[in-house]
Each structure stands twice: as C-alpha cells, then as structure tokens.
C-alpha cells in the first residue's frame, strides 16, 4: 500500500464514521471520554515504555533540551492527560444547540443548529499530550479525527492513540472515528491536506515552517494557528511600574509559547523614566535585548535590531525593543510586523486605549494586561485546540464551539416558491 | 507592469484601505451606499452603452442565449441594482456588535466583537449585477473588496465599478477600498488567490469549473459557493399531491439556479401511485427525464441514467429519477452524490422527517417544502453574497454577518499571568 492509499483508506473510514458520530448522543460521548481517561491511566506503563524509546532516539539525534522536555512523559503528565479528558466530558456539548431561527411569512420554520464539522485533520509536532487532547475534543464535538503527529513522538503517539481508540469504540464511539497515521513519512501530510470531500478541515499545530507548508499546499480548508509576534506598547504617562510588571510577565513567564511578547514598543517620552529600570529587570531575568538605535543608547549590551528581528517569533529569552514617536508609529509597526495574535497597550489615556483596541487587527487586543492570557482555559472556555490567527471561521482560542459548523432545518407543509 | 504586479498593487491598496474602512462609521457607509445607488441610475446611459459592446462581442462569439440573457442590462435591471444598494443601506451594520463577553476571576473583562474580514476577493462570471451587489455588501460590512469579473462582461463591469468607486469615495469611503481588476487575463485570478497577507478570503461565484480551479489553487482561505446537486425524496405514504407540487416547483420554476432540484428519489411503495401523474406533469412542463431501470419501466421516453448523471448539476430542464427501497437508500444516495447544498424529504412520517433532518449533511435540509427557498432574501436576511456549501466559517446563504470575523478586546488594570 502506498502512503497515499494508506492515508486515503483512513480518510474514507473517518468519513464513514463521521456521519454516525454526528448523531451519537452526548451521554455516549461522555461515557467514552471517561473510559478513555481510565484506559490512559491503566496503560501508563505501556505509554512510558514507548515514550522511553522516543526519548532515546531523540537523545541519539541530539534533540534540543527544550524539545526533549516537551517530548517527555511521566506518570504526572499521563494523569494530567486523563484529567483533561475528564474535564472535556464535563463541558457542554455544542452539537444540536439552536443558534438562530424564525418563522417566514409563508409559514416555513427555519432553525439554524450546530452540527459537527465532520472530519478534522490535526497535524502537530513533538508534544504527545496533543494526541489525547485533540482526540478528546473531537470526540466531544462529534467530529471524526485524523491525527498526524511528528516522527519524534511516533512510538508514544501510536500507543496513546491505540489505547484511546480501543476504549472509545468499546464505549460506543463508531469504529473508524479516530484515525492515527502511524508513519513518519512526510508525504502523509501532503496527501492528508488534499483529501477534499473526505476531510473537512485541517488544523496545523506547530512551528511556522509546518504551518506555512500546510497553508501553501492544502486544498482542504485550513485553520492557521499559533504564530505569535506579539507586541506590548508602553504609552507616555502610563503607570510605569504596571508596565514593567506586564512587560516582564509577557516575555519571561513562559517565553516559548505563542502568546509571549517578542517586541516592546516604548513611547519616546516614556523612555527616559521607564526604560532604564525595565532593562535592569530584563537583564536580571536573563533576557537578551535587541534594539533600535535609540534603545541601544541606553545600554551597550544591546545589539542592533535588523529588519528580520522585528518579524521574528524568538520563542526564547530574546526581546526586540523599539522607541517610537507615539501611538501612530506603534500601530503602524504592529500592522507591519504583527501576526494578528495578541497585542497590548499599557496606557492611562482613555482615547489611546479605545483607538488601540479599535484599530489593531489581531485576535486579542489588550489594555493594561499581559498578552499571556490569550488561552482557551484562561478565557474560561474549559478547553483549547489551538489559537486561530486567521479571520475565517474562528479567531483566537478555539474550544468546542469552534469545532462545529451549522445547518438550516426548514420545515413546512407544502410551501413552494412563487 | 505584469499581471502579477497589477494585482499586487490593487491588493496592497485594498489592504491599506481596509484598516480605515473597518473603523468607518455606519452613518458614512450608509450615505455612501445611497450616493452609489443614485450614481448608478445617473450613469445608466453610460452603463447601457458599455453593456451593448459586451452583448455585441457575446453574439459575435456565439454566446448561448441563456448566457446572453444573464449578461444583458436594461434600465429596469440598473434600477434594480440601485434599489439593491438602497436596501443594503437599510440593513443592520454587523460591525461592532458584541457577540459574547465575560469578566474573568482575575478581574479582566473579555469582550468578543464583530469586525470586518478585511479584504475580500470576489471572482465571478457573466452577470454584471454581481459587481454592484458585491461592492454594496462589502462596503456595508466594512470590507475592502477586489473584484475579478468574467471577460464577457468586462466593459459593463468597468463602467459599473468606476461609477460606484467614484461615488463611494466622494461620500467618505477610504480611497482604494474598492478595486476592480480590469483585465480579462486569467492569470489575474491565479495571482489574486495567492495574495496571503493582503487578501483575507476569496469567494468564487460561478460554475463548477471556476470554483474547483479556485479551491485547488488558492493559498488564501476560500468560501466555496453554490454548486447544487439537490434531491427531493418522496416517501411512501406522503401527500402525493403536495409532493408533485414541490417536485415541479423545485425543478421547473427556475432550473438554472443552484437550489433547483436535479434528482427525484421515489420510495418503491410510492412509485405506482405517485409517479405516472408526476411524469405527465413533467413532460407537460418540457422536462427531460433520465431514470433508473425501474423508472424507465414507467415511460418509454425515459433514457437510462449513467453514473455521471447522478452527480451532475444539469442547470436546465433535465431531471434524474431513481426509485429507492426506502429512507436508508435515499440517505445513502444523497450522501454519495449530493453537494451538501439543499435536500428535501416529502413525508407524513414524523420519525422519517426527524431522521432525514438529523442525518443529511447539507446546508439546508427541508421537510415538505421546495429546495428553491435556500436564499438569503427568502430566509429573511435581506441580502446574499452567495450560498456556502462548505462547513467552515459560514454554511448556507451568506449575508452581512457572514462577511465578518471577530476579535477579543481584553481590558484590565495590570493583570499578569501566574
């Protein structure tokens, strides 16, 4: 069987199962999620053994320490995955919710209801917990799922997906609804993202390279996620202590994630009072500062920012800093280099706050708070399958409702169009 | 300037204008729409002169009569276009509407508001009234628009777009927000659908060939519209007079449109009572019947349906007819050959009605009414930019709200993540 045939066979099976899963009751889906959580914990030894093989291969291939950390599983992490499935079981099932409706003048009733998307392809890297998260969210929202994980986590993912599939089917989820592509052939991704008619959407989760490859080559609809070149703009006259606390949190608290800050923009009238202590705090926290010419004048350790720096998601303890002439220059900089993820202004000025929130084109626009809050759990959605940075279908943190579509049900008694 | 450079220049101008248009007030947008309507009527002579050139070229190229009819403009059609713009002015502006919101435990307020999509590309064929409709809906929903019409209507479209752009800008719409690709080079389509970062979505409106070419080649998100292989299933025990009235209306009233029926499915227990009179009515209406073997037994004028027939959107007075063993076979046939547009069951059985609406995967699922009602105006939306047959972002008739995205506004007083 070629890779194409293998992927197509899985897509056909998922497509067949999707019709049945779409009308599977919430009671059965919740029962399945709880059984899947139990099975994951019961299979911990098997999962850890598989994960040890992935870790060994990773070390042999000189994988970076941060990457190894994301790959590593433990009893605690397996319990957390199981707990995640139990939490998804407690969330409201969006399928069947009535979104809108009316009676037309001719007596027809029109009701718009939520339905599953159908078959969702998830393409991801490194972290094996995504396997359990994605399967759980897709099962709950009534979607069949095809998972294609990174080769570095292949052994772990095979075992996790196998355990979850078996438990789900035993609990009444239609056979075929959960598909895992147990191959490290990259061709499988290329095939999956062209399965129009069988796959309804693909969601890539990973680095910019993966996401761009999917966007450029997919013929199936794509939801772009998670590339974040996020800015914090410190306005003149802001509460500079608050600004420093926000700017430290947004950069340092967890620099590898997409809602962390990459560029600090400082009003030129704020720089003298705000920046020296800010730089001291950043250096103390181990942050490397890359700056514009005016910023460099504040400290000789600051290297000059290039055009590429402004557009880079560092994902580590590097930070670009630019001194700007005011709100307009900050807005222009964000429009040019931002990735429409999360942007923040720290200000005391009502009009500047209002203008910033209205004019910045991003999924999440903050006044006086850290960009780190852009997250489905923080926003109170109880789940997250990714953060959409595109404008179609869903924008920002995506939870269960974002994994649904809708259809119109029209009921009549013989109406015809005149 | 190459075609690519021309398209890119227009996309950049639209992208620049989109930021300003997104925050342009409803008052200005409505004033512009009314001014555009007046300008269209004032420019009728110029529009008709340009249309005469297109018609002449069409006749010289042996264009089909139905195509010529769609291309032809008249004073009445120009007035209707103007009236359409005035109606759009009266619709509610979706931009700025609050969709959701909450206060988080840490005191942050999160508000989800509607925002324009940004820049919308519309790729369409033949009918020059689409130029005015699309510009009107995009202006009202705060989106910049790039139009690429068919070469057969180029002269008409150039004049219409020119008149509307001038009137819009004079009334305060940002310069550049309305772009028309005044070229019949097909390369312009290929370039437009790859303008990631400048174009937020493309909506193809036209035949299956155009839509598939866009879906297969676009890297920008696409909303698929309007291919309809729609079915009507007549259940055993249905009100057969009602069924015949619906089946005539769905096929005959306007066969060229996407919500017209292409295939009639008849329960085998209904056939003897229902079908003879149905066929008599169809033949009287000039309908050509293509049928399965069992259907052919009812009349010698019925030619045998091929596999291709079941999957074809005839768009004219041809109809495929199949006698099925019951609801399950009808559902399976629709799942295999339907295009997820509009599907109907005519039945008196509660459980069959419920099962059909739950299990058919389509934008609009009818009980006892003609599929011809799938339309933004009929549904009471007051507008329509197309009918989405995909599941992402929008499904079914798309009006102003479907031309928007959302963003989260988060306001705090120094919150940082722990």
Automatic annotation (TrEMBL), chains A, B:
Function: Catalyzes the NADPH-dependent reduction of L-glutamate 5-phosphate into L-glutamate 5-semialdehyde and phosphate. The product spontaneously undergoes cyclization to form 1-pyrroline-5-carboxylate.
Keyword Nuclease appears in the UniProt entry: no
Catalytic activity annotation: L-glutamate 5-semialdehyde + phosphate + NADP(+) = L-glutamyl 5-phosphate + NADPH + H(+)
Enzyme class: oxidoreductase
Protein name as it appears in the record: Gamma-glutamyl phosphate reductase
Organism per entry: Phascolarctobacterium faecium
InterPro entries, sorted: Ald_DH/histidinol_DH (IPR016161), Ald_DH_C (IPR016163), Ald_DH_N (IPR016162), Aldehyde_DH_dom (IPR015590), G-glutamylP_reductase_CS (IPR020593), Glu-5-SA_DH (IPR012134), GPR_dom (IPR000965)
GO biological process: L-proline biosynthetic process
Domain called Aldehyde dehydrogenase: residue spans: 4-281
Family the entry assigns: Belongs to the gamma-glutamyl phosphate reductase family.
Entry's EC annotation: 1.2.1.41
């Amino acid at each position: 069987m070629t890779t194409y045939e293998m992927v197509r066979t899985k897509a056909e099976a998922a497509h067949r199962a999707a019709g049945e899963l779409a009308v599977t009751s919430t009671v059965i889906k919740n029962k399945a999620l709880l059984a899947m959580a139990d099975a994951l914990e019961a299979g911990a030894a098997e999962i850890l053994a598989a994960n040890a093989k992935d870790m060994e291969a990773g070390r042999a291939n000189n994988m970076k320490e941060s990457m190894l950390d994301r790959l590593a599983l433990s009893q605690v992490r397996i319990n957390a995955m199981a707990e995640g499935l139990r939490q998804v079981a407690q969330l409201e099932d969006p399928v069947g919710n009535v979104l809108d409706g009316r009676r037309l003048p001719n007596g027809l009733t029109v009701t718009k209801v939520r339905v599953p998307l159908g078959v969702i392809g998830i393409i991801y890297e490194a972290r094996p917990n995504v396997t359990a998260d994605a399967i759980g969210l897709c099962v709950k929202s009534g979607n069949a799922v095809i998972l294609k994980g990174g080769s570095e986590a292949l052994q772990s993912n095979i075992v996790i997906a196998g355990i979850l599939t078996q438990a789900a089917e035993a609990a009444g989820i239609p056979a075929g609804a959960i598909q895992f592509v147990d191959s490290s052939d990259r061709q499988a991704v290329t095939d999956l993202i062209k399965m129009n008619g069988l796959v309804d959407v693909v969601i890539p989760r990973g680095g910019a390279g993966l996401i761009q490859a999917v966007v450029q080559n997919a013929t199936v609809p794509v939801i772009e996620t998670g590339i974040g070149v996020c800015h914090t703009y410190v306005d003149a006259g802001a509460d500079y202590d608050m600004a420093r606390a926000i700017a430290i949190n947004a950069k340092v608290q967890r620099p590898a994630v997409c809602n962390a800050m990459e560029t600090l923009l400082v009003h030129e009238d704020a720089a003298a009072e705000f920046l020296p202590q800010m730089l001291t705090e950043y250096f103390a926290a181990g942050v490397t500062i890359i700056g514009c010419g005016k910023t460099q004048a504040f400290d000789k350790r600051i290297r000059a920012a290039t055009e590429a720096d402004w557009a880079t998601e560092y994902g580590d303890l590097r930070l670009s800093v630019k001194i700007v002439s005011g709100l307009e220059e900050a807005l222009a900089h964000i429009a040019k280099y931002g990735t429409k993820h999360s942007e923040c202004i720290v200000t005391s000025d009502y009009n500047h706050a209002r203008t910033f929130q209205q004019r910045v084109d991003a999924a999440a626009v903050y006044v006086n708070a850290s960009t780190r809050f852009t997250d489905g759990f923080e926003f109170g959605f109880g789940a997250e399958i990714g953060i959409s940075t595109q404008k179609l279908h869903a924008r920002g943190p995506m939870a269960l409702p974002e994994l649904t579509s809708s259809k119109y049900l029209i009921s009549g008694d013989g109406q015809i169009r005149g």
